[in-house]
């Protein structure tokens, strides 16, 4: 397993680079294994506030969706055969995209969609062509000129084609028409004009939507989506809807239990936000109407609670008909409040660790001996994890996937080196271009098989921008739904003035960074704070171990005599991000006129322990917190407080001052926060060891498989490979709090031997 050993060495080096350095119990043996070789190797079920583990209990409208996993192309073919056409990508059905060429004559526009498969009930081809021509003719030359001025020739041509289709096919639903995306529009006045002119010129038959800025903080460079408008709702949908419901005998929201429908989302190998955006598009609602306690891993099978505002169960259940990679199900419940970030106790993980290897067992041992030895080592490691816990490190996923870690970018931002931060974001591996060029010249794609194709496109885009300084060619390489940070930077810095030919923004580095969505922009400085926290946590353990010493920090109120145990609960619930992590954000009090240094935001407070308190035995290592650097935190009153100063002042720490974290740019002026130094599973850790034949063997049952099996007349039989069972897998079940990384628990359990699956050393990937 030399390749695996190399992978472990690389992973350990990556961990050390972000401050992950020590083990709590290095003397307890670990083992080597592979994590997430199949996405069914990683099952995550949310733990509700009452401690109950959430499971999918029922799925309606699922009779045609058996558990058997079919290839994506087979599912697409089946769907096309059943429906006659696809609701998604028109090219999948031989449909043509909206025309994209200079000019806007009626003949060219009317030909653009005639290749689409049209229901027999629609008008004849001649009638359709006439309707399209009439629609184009109804737009005055003056209005066409306005559209070209706002959107440019190509986008205007596509918009007119969309309008022609809408008029020609009035019986079609709005979602069946392909939307048009504008080029990024940098001026706010231009974006306002874009929204208004579409509404006016097309008499509200088309509508616009901001699609690049999900937080409704439209900054420069926002993309406008133009799409067919659905039929108008009643003038007062709330009162009209209640009135109509009563007339039809429906219960109103209060009778049901509240305006928020809580349901269970089951997903396989998909991001939480990817599924919710799809649901929002199908329901024609904004994503803000959904609530959830936290996002879940993509590569895995996850179950979580979601809430939606003013949508009935019957309507939501219908979406299972077109569900791919997810299901919506029960328990169903109407409530008066929706879900919010942090409203879960944690997650239960059922993890299959494949290809388990143990140093102290001879290769010549038979399988029964190996099984018994593996069980002994795994159970001892699990018992130690449950009792002693693990350092509550921020995992590698906190620091990005590209060569320059997000913490290094955040460090440059905090130092005021905005150009350096941008250069780090827009860095790439030149070898990607060399391999891609070699593959294309040889007609061979094998040299690119280890790198996602999107990363090659990203490298091409950045290379083009570095070469030309302009955005045109570079943006053409970037995938439409990825790399929003790179896209924002290139769009702003590479904008050319049409009149002068100059690049007015080429040195506007702060303006370029402002083009990045705020949550993503803040991720960089948050990552720097996480890097400092990791480094300090390791140092604290090296100096004092699990001993509580004078000057250590604890949360105010948690164990104070006479204090309300729940005094910090509300603040804590408000201070987590979509991953359940503590939020470190600019304080509401962070302005130049406030010298008090006290944050007005709800905030968990900490205090140092006195010598008597530290020696009293009332506090243990699991009570201690360490601060994330900021202007509104206290630092430990012992050697660790001094270490913050020394480390952050060093070259590695960025030559920064933990006591001077205010910045003139408020987005990177951080108040700080606190994080528990130690963590341990919420309950006992369960382990089992199984022998298996190959990577296609599945050793656990998902919630959906259980439901499908229960609904079938005969129990389903899990397929497994027919080869000899000469491999070992560890089945691990544990519950962790919402702000704890499963990867860090696995690190302590295996002593760094858990390798994230990559095709570079494994045979099969699912």
UniProtKB/TrEMBL annotation:
Which Gene Ontology molecular function entries are recorded, alphabetically? Answer: pseudouridine synthase activity; RNA binding
GO cellular-component term (any)? nucleus
UniProt domain TRUD: residue ranges: 389-680
Q: Which CDD domains match?
A: PseudoU_synth_ScPUS7
Which residue intervals are annotated with compositional bias (Basic and acidic residues) in the record?
58-85, 117-126, 576-595
Protein keywords = Isomerase, tRNA processing
Q: What's an example Gene Ontology biological process for this entry?
A: pseudouridine synthesis
UniProt key word Ribonucleoprotein? no
What are the boundaries of the region Disordered?
58-126, 212-251, 560-603
Q: Does the keyword Cell membrane apply?
A: no
Q: Which family does this protein fall into? A: Belongs to the pseudouridine synthase TruD family.
The record's listing under NCBIfam families reads:
tRNA_TruD_broad
Per its UniProt record, what PANTHER family does this chain match?
PSEUDOURIDYLATE SYNTHASE PUS7L (PTHR13326:SF21), TRNA PSEUDOURIDINE SYNTHASE D (PTHR13326)
Record protein name field:
Multisubstrate pseudouridine synthase 7
């Amino acid at each position: 397993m030399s390749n695996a050993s190399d992978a472990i060495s690389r992973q350990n080096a990556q961990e050390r680079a972000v401050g992950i350095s020590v083990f709590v119990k290095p003397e307890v043996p670990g083992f080597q294994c592979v994590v997430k070789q199949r996405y069914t190797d990683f099952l995550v079920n949310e733990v509700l506030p009452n401690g109950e583990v959430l499971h999918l209990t029922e799925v309606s409208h699922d009779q045609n969706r058996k558990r058997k996993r079919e290839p994506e192309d087979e599912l697409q073919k089946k769907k096309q055969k059943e429906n006659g056409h696809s609701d998604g990508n028109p090219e999948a059905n031989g449909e043509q995209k909206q025309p994209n060429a200079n000019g806007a004559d009626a003949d060219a526009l009317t030909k653009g969609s005639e290749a689409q498969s049209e229901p027999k009930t629609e008008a004849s081809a001649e009638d359709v062509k006439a309707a399209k021509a009439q629609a184009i003719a109804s737009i005055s030359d003056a209005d066409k000129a306005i559209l070209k001025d706002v959107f440019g020739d190509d986008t205007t041509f596509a918009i007119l084609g969309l309008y022609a289709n809408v008029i020609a096919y009035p019986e079609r639903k709005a979602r069946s028409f392909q939307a048009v995306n504008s080029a990024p529009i940098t001026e706010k006045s231009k974006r306002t004009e874009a929204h208004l002119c579409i509404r006016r010129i097309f008499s509200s038959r088309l509508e616009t939507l901001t699609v690049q800025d999900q937080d409704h903080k439209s900054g420069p460079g926002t993309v406008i989506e133009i799409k067919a408008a659905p039929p108008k709702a009643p003038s007062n949908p709330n009162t009209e809807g209640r009135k109509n419901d009563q007339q039809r005998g429906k219960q109103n929201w209060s009778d049901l239990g509240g305006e928020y429908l809580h349901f269970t989302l089951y997903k396989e190998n998909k991001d939480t936000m990817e599924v919710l955006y799809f649901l929002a598009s199908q329901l024609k609602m904004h994503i803000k109407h959904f609530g959830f306690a936290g996002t879940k891993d993509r590569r895995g099978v996850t179950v979580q609670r979601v809430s939606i505002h003013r949508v009935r169960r019957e309507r939501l259940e219908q979406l299972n008909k077109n569900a791919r990679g997810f299901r919506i199900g029960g328990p169903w419940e109407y409530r008066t409040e929706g879900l919010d970030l942090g409203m879960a106790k944690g997650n239960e993980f059922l993890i299959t660790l494949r290809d388990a290897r143990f140093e102290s067992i001879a290769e010549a041992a038979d399988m029964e001996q190996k099984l018994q030895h593996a069980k002994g080592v795994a159970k001892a490691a699990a018992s130690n994890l449950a009792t002693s816990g693990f350092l509550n490190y921020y995992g590698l996923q906190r620091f990005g996937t590209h060569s320059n870690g997000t913490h290094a970018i955040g460090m440059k931002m905090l130092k005021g080196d905005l150009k350096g931060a941008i250069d780090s974001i827009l860095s790439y591996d030149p070898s990607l271009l060399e391999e891609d060029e070699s593959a294309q010249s040889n007609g061979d794609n094998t040299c690119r098989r280890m790198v996602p194709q999107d990363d090659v496109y990203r490298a091409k885009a950045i290379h083009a921008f570095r070469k030309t300084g302009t955005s045109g060619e570079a943006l053409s390489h970037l995938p439409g739904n990825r790399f929003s940070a790179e896209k924002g930077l290139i769009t702003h810095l590479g904008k050319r003035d049409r009149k002068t030919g100059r690049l007015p923004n080429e040195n506007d580095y702060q303006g370029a960074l402002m083009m990045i969505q705020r949550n993503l922009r803040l991720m960089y400085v948050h990552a720097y704070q996480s890097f400092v926290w990791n480094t300090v946590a390791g140092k604290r353990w090296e100096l004092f171990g699990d001993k509580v010493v004078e000057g250590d920090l604890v949360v105010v109120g948690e164990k104070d005599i006479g204090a309300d145990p729940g005094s910090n609960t509300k603040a804590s619930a408000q201070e987590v991000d979509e991953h359940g992590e503590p939020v470190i954000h600019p304080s509401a009090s962070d302005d130049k006129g406030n010298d008090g240094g006290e944050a007005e935001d709800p905030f968990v407070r900490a205090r140092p322990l006195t010598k008597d308190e530290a020696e009293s035995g009332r506090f243990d290592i699991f009570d201690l917190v360490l601060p994330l650097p900021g202007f509104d935190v206290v630092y430990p009153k012992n050697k660790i407080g001094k270490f913050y100063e020394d480390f952050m002042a060093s070259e590695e720490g960025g030559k920064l001052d933990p006591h001077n974290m205010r910045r003139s740019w408020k987005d990177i002026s951080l108040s700080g926060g606190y994080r528990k130094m130690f963590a341990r599973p919420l309950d006992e850790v369960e382990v089992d060891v199984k022998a298996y034949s190959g990577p296609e063997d599945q050793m656990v049952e998902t919630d959906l498989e259980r439901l499908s099996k229960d609904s079938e007349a005969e129990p389903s039989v899990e397929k497994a490979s027919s080869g000899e069972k000469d491999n070992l897998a560890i089945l691990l079940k544990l519950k962790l709090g919402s702000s704890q990384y499963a990867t860090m628990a696995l690190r302590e359990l295996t002593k760094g031997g858990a390798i994230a699956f990559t095709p570079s050393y494994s045979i099969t990937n699912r």
